[in-house]
Design a protein that fits this description.
The chain is α/β, with parallel strands linked by helices. It has a single domain, classed as HAD superfamily/HAD-like (Rossmann fold). Helix content is 35%, strand content 15%. It is built from 7 helices and 8 strands. The strands form 2 sheets. A 6-stranded parallel beta sheet has the order 1-7-6-2-4-5, sandwiched between helices. The longest helix is centred in the middle third of the chain and has 11 residues, at 81-91. The two termini are 26 Å apart.
């Protein structure tokens, strides 16, 4: 645990839970935590920003979650509308893009859409400064998952290690067959 992690815990700003990927979160765990709805980040949580990698087993996991009766709503800061709509349709999920996380409006919209109370919902994302901080500001529980490999933005080279959990090289990845890129 880093000094940054310890400070976040003291300030009660860190994630409530951490998992490597979405598919490592079991239905039993969701049930034990009385989760009725999930607010999911898209970029680098479900699919890498460059559309090369899907989180391992994510499509099967999303279906299991829905079969279990848990609602899912995508809340993305992504600005490319066509890309967001493509993924929303492929995954058969409702959601919004350009959500302006960490501000509350996107999270509130998700709660209204699912017609659930904050204590029934868990936010899952890869980035502290958008997903986790937004969940905390909105009084929602949250899980941080490892950020899928993606081309780094300039600021990620400076502070990415503090706000994102890096994806381990030895952990398997699912290749997005539509994009067809194979490397890692």
């Amino acid at each position: 645990m880093t000094l940054f992690d310890r400070i976040l815990i003291l300030l009660k700003l860190g994630p409530d839970h951490r998992f490597m990927t979405l598919s490592t979160i079991s239905m039993k765990w969701l049930s034990e935590n009385q989760i009725k709805g999930l607010i999911l980040d898209l970029d680098n949580t479900i699919i890498s920003e460059d559309d090369c990698y899907l989180s391992p087993g994510v499509e099967r996991w999303l279906q299991q979650v829905q079969d279990y009766g848990i609602q899912i709503f995508l809340v993305s800061n992504g600005k490319r509308e066509a890309r967001f709509i493509n993924w929303k349709e492929r995954l058969h999920l409702p959601g919004i893009h350009q959500a302006r996380k960490p501000f509350k409006s996107g999270f509130k919209r998700a709660l209204r859409s699912m017609n659930l109370c904050p204590h029934d919902v868990m936010v899952i994302g890869d980035s502290f400064h958008t997903d986790i901080l937004g969940a905390k500001i909105s009084h929602l529980r949250c899980i941080q998952v490892a950020s899928l490999p993606h081309p780094k933005l300039w600021w990620e080279n400076l502070i990415g290690a503090y706000i994102q959990k890096p994806y381990p090289q030895e952990y398997p990845l699912d290749i997005n067959e539509i994009k067809g890129k194979v490397s890692h």
